Amino acid sequence: MSRKYEDMREHRARAVTVLNRVKESRKGLKIRYERIDEHTWVERSEGTESLKQPHMMQSTVTRQDAEQAIALYRTAKSAKAEYEAVMADAERIINQFGRANLDQFSEGRLELDSGTLALKSGAAKPLKGGRPLTTAARAELAALLPEAYVRLSCDFAELYGCRDKMVRQLLAVRGIEIVRDDKFVVL
Predict the structure, then answer these.
(1) Which terminus of the chain, N or C, has less C-beta within 10 A?
(2) What's the rounded Cα separation, in Å, for the pair 131 and 79?
(3) How many angstroms separate the CA atoms of 138 and 132, rounded?
């Protein structure tokens, strides 16, 4: 077995041990364990409705629900970081293999025993000395290029808080609303 696979098994074994300990300590409480998906279980009190119901139907969220959600979030976030590190390592190996065996690809694909590698074109981006161009350098380049290769774009972050009456009227006439999707962050 590879080192990464052993680490994942060890991590899973620790998680299962902690989960069993929590279940044992909460045996006397009136709770049930509800399965969200293949890998996720949530502890719910017997009096609350199922999580599979739309969240809009829940009128209030208790402190216990928030505490549990924070604990789940932190656990999932740490697992996500570990899995992303494993995925990044795997992607590096796949990219290296793909570049070395590019001549074996047929119609942008290479069949392997465990899956198919497909060559996907990435976004074109300007670099200078191996580093991305600054905003000022991009603007300078755009001024030099013919119009067919340059397009205008809006700064929606700046438009969100814009106090200019003319700009607000222009947006309102066209029925455009600039919104921001704010979220709560667990620290």
Answers:
(1) C
(2) 32
(3) 9
